[in-house]
Write a structure and sequence with these properties.
Length: 327
C-alpha cells in the first residue's frame, strides 16, 4: 500500500478495537547532525485504553546509526511487553522501519543478532504468560498521533546523555572506508601528477565503472582513453613508440581530441551527442558519469578507436603511405 492507504488502515485497526485487553506500543529512532545532538535517540510510547501509560527515551550514542536505533526500539518494546504481560492480553508493537522488522524475523548472524536474540527471548516469555504479541509496520510522518509521539521522544532523546558506548559494525565499516579513501587520496596526491588527476577529482571506488558484461577489449579501450594511456599517439610518442603524436586528421592525438573534436569521427560524435539529448560534450560527462560512460562505450564500439587492432591497422597504413611517398 501507499503510505496514505496504510495510514487509513492503521487508523481503522486502532479505532475499531473494542477489546480492552490490548496495548499499543509505538517505537521510533532519530538522529541529528546538530552540534547539540549526542547520538541516536530512541522513543517508546505505550498506549492503553487511549491513554499514554508509559514512555521511554534512550540515547545509544553517536557510534550507532538510526537503523540500530530502530532495532533497539522494537526490542525494548518487546521487553517492556514481557514485563507487563498478562494472560489473554495482546501487545501490539508499531514501528515505521520495515528493514528492522525483517531483520528481527529472519535468523542471521549478521549485525543485529543481539537484538534478535533478546526479542525472541522476550517474545517467548510473553507467550509463556498466556499473552499474545504482534509487530506491525505503521507509516511514519503521516500524522498518526502515537507514532508522532514516539518520534518526538526519539528526537528529544538525541539531546540527552548516552547510555551506551558501543560502536556498531555499520559505523566501523563507514569509518574504515573513509580512512581507506583518505589514504589512497594522500598517496595519489603525492605521486607524479598525471593528465587524469589534473582533469578530474580522484574518486576511489571498489568496483569498476563499466558493466561486467562489457567485452574486455572495449573496457580496456575506455580506461586507456580515460587515463590518457594506451594506444593514443600523444602517449606513445612520449615513450618513443611512434614517430609523431599526430592523428590522421593532422591534430595532436589526445583523449580530448578523439572524443571531442577529431573530424574523422564527426558523424559518430553527432550520434553520441544526440543520444545524450544534444548536450555539449565534455570529458567529465563522457568518462565520469553513468550515462556518459554507457554512451562512450557505444561510441568506442562503433568507431573501434583506442584498441590495439585500430592502432596496428593505422601503423600499417602509415607504413604503406611512407613507402609510396619514397617511390
Amino acid at each position: 500500500m501507499s503510505k496514505e492507504l496504510a495510514t487509513i488502515e492503521h487508523q481503522k485497526l486502532i479505532s475499531l478495537t473494542k477489546n480492552r485487553r490490548i496495548y499499543n506500543i509505538y517505537t521510533n529512532a532519530s538522529s541529528f547532525s546538530d552540534p547539540e545532538s549526542k547520538g541516536v535517540g530512541i522513543g517508546i510510547a505505550a498506549i492503553y485504553r487511549n491513554r499514554l501509560i508509559y514512555e521511554e527515551k534512550i540515547n545509544i550514542g553517536d557510534s550507532q546509526i538510526v537503523y540500530n536505533g530502530e532495532l533497539q526500539g522494537v526490542t525494548k518494546a518487546i521487553e517492556y511487553s514481557e514485563k507487563i504481560a498478562r494472560k489473554s492480553y495482546l501487545y501490539r508493537i508499531f514501528t515505521d522501519n520495515q528493514a528492522g522488522i525483517y531483520r528481527l524475523k529472519k535468523p542471521s548472524d549478521n549485525p543485529g543478532q543481539d537484538c534478535q536474540i533478546r526479542a525472541i527471548t522476550a517474545a517467548k516469555s510473553v507467550l509463556a504468560k498466556g499473552a499474545k504479541i504482534e509487530i506491525h509496520w505503521s507509516p511514519g510522518h503521516t500524522d498518526i498521533y502515537s507514532n508522532e509521539l514516539a518520534d518526538s521522544l526519539a528526537k528529544s532523546a538525541t539531546l540527552q546523555n548516552s547510555t551506551s558506548n558501543k560502536t556498531s559494525f555499520a559505523v566501523l565499516s563507514s569509518r574504515t572506508k573513509k580512512l581507506k579513501q583518505l589514504e589512497w587520496i594522500s598517496h595519489l596526491n603525492t605521486a607524479k601528477p598525471t593528465n587524469y588527476s589534473k582533469r578530474f577529482f580522484w574518486n576511489i571506488k571498489s568496483k569498476i565503472s563499466v558493466s561486467i558484461s562489457t567485452k574486455r577489449e572495449l573496457a580496456s579501450a575506455f580506461y586507456q582513453l580515460k587515463f590518457g594511456h594506451g594506444y593514443i599517439k600523444s602517449y606513445l610518442y612520449r615513450l618513443n613508440h611512434v614517430g609523431n603524436d599526430k592523428c590522421s586528421c593532422g591534430q595532436r592525438e589526445t583523449t580530448e581530441h578523439l572524443l571531442l573534436s577529431c573530424r574523422n569521427l564527426k558523424e559518430a560524435r553527432k550520434v553520441l551527442r544526440n543520444e545524450l539529448n544534444g548536450v555539449t560534450l565534455n570529458l567529465a560527462l563522457l568518462v565520469y558519469t553513468k550515462i556518459g560512460i554507457l554512451k562512450t562505450l557505444e561510441f568506442l564500439q562503433k568507431t573501434g578507436i583506442a584498441t590495439r587492432k585500430w592502432h596496428l591497422e593505422r601503423v600499417e597504413r602509415e607504413r604503406v603511405w611512407e613507402e609510396f611517398d619514397n617511390l
